[in-house]
Amino acid sequence: NVEFLGPLSQDELIPYYQRAKVYCQLSMREGLPNALCEAMLCECVPVGTRNYGIPTAIGDTGFYVPYGDPKATAEAIKEALNADKGKEARERIKKMFPIERREKELVEIIRGLIKEGK
């Protein structure tokens, strides 16, 4: 089933990711999508377009569809529902963006801003 929930807080979102089997990121343009990475951390199998930052997140742990192709999207969702790739998706994000690296980069940004007086 598909549910349209409207805006949710981060705390409200996580249980939905945890219950979902598949997460779709079907954007025409997208940087590195945080929501996709969060869903993958919750072991959702990703379905996405090959646009911009989406493949960086998905790699070979999910399924790709052409932008604006509902038939291909439906087929990919069916495949994703039957795929056992959730744990792979989670591990990919954990390896690509370990908390230690994110903490270090954030500290570097903050120090740089302090040094510049911003």
Question: What do these coordinates show?
Answer:
This protein has one domain: Glycogen Phosphorylase B (Rossmann fold), CATH 3.40.50. Helices cover 55% and strands 8% of the residues. It has helices at 10-19, 34-41, 54-58, 70-82, 86-96, 99-116, and strands spanning 22-25, 45-48, 63-64. α2 links the parallel β1 (22-25) and β2. The model has no long low-confidence stretch (mean pLDDT 93).
Main features:
118 residues, mainly alpha, Rossmann fold, three-stranded parallel sheet, 6 helices
How widely separated are the two ends?
Answer: 48 Å
Second-tier CATH architecture: 3-Layer(aba) Sandwich
In the sheet with the most strands, the strands line up as 1-2-3
Question: How many distinct helices?
Answer: 6
Please estimate the helix content.
Answer: 55-70%
CATH topology: Rossmann fold
- The assigned structural class equals mainly alpha
**Overall spatial form:** elongated
Helix and strand element order? HEHEHEHHH
Q: What is the CATH homology-level superfamily?
A: Glycogen Phosphorylase B
How many β strands by DSSP? 3
